[in-house]
Amino acid sequence: MSQNVYIGMTLKPWPILLDHYRDVKEYSAKWNLLGERFGLPLPRKLIAASTSQFEKFQLRWKNKRDIQHNGFYAYVGSKPYTPFQAPSTRIASKAIQQLLGNEKFETRKLAALTNFLHKFDFGGLLRLRFNVAISSDDFTNLQNGQQLQPKTALILKEALEEYELEEILGLIKYCESISKAPEFLLSLHPNVISLNHLRIHEETVSDVTIDSHVVSTLLRAGLIELENLETVRHTKSPSNYVDDIDISDVPLTGLAKRSSGEQCLFLLFLGIISSIEDDALICIDEPEISLHPQWQEKFVDILKDSFSGYQGCHFLIATHSPLIVSDISASNCCVYDMVNRKLIDARPHKERSADYQLATLFHNPGNNNEYLITQIIEVLDCVCKTENPPEEILATANWLLSFESQLEEHDKVRVLLGIMRSTLLAGGYL
Predict the structure, then answer these.
(1) What secondary structure, in 3-state letters, does 178-233 show?
(2) What's the pLDDT tens digit per position in 395-407?
(3) Which residue has the higher pLDDT, 130 or 209?
(4) Which of 148, 220, 261, 354 is deepest in the core (most CB within 10 A)?
């Protein structure tokens, strides 16, 4: 595995990368020449991922000439905002759209995907249910050039940024078929992924063939949305009929039944796994949102395990979580201190307490910081036992005193700092 993880770095490089990728496409500039201009090799794929509703990633390129289906730029998040969809639904739709948009699946991608699903107790057989986002009346109005409902007008505005009107009109027949039979069976195996349209009754079968590429396009255009995702059991070989599917006695497997944290983590990783390639730059914004501390502690480990088969990938993670920082690897990882504006070695911070991370990296000790208390006791012990304390002890003392103004009057750390200050003054060390 050849990967690097950077924690806490600013996520501002992606607009520049998009612009230069456009230059490569429009002017046939060589990618390696652009890399030489920057002095570093440029990524071959840029993935922006977040479950926050306030992230500032770009949904897509606003130029139709730039669009490549699952091309250089992949977005995993809750945009575009619409009052008609919950954030989790938008993220789920985006993740499945990225997954189904792949023209081919490598063995390592499928292995990463199936392993990740098993971590969440999802098997290799998933049942997808979609909603058609536009009413049948508005489909008719759209074909006839008549006035549309506000929701449809908003969807159409977004879709026209990527697709021509003729393309959108051509997708209507698929939406009509999905409205009659909204469920699909997604089968994940070590060497292949397949999507089968599930029909409840034979009369719902039409001449329209809906494959994974069509579903991905419909999701990307906003014409359909993912309503639910469940693990299923099948009693026979997968076929086109729901009668062969047994979803009884499968507790808590529906995505909507999971905790908000599990949903966020599941959708985030599903989207990244579906999009990742070698030499990719993956920007992840605030992955700790809604995550239980137990999941925060495992986040980087899951990241490494899921993508161990990929080479040359760089992960930039913006986080406020000391638990995520504590989980960083001892190798190939750096931490960017945004207060002091410097990149520092991650190894001293691996598997240290949250209080340690708050004091040393976040420069905000919180209340009754236990790490600072132990440091103060060590300084006092050394000063009281030694006539000439080492310089590093006095340097630690000065660093500890820098927190004094940030603490409440009755905070235990502040009380001990007052004792330490008096002791140092009495000994002539301040």
Answers:
(1) HHHCCEEEEEECCCCEEEEEEECCHHHCCCCCCCHHHHHHHHHHCCEEEEEEEECE
(2) 999 999 999 999 9
(3) 130
(4) 220
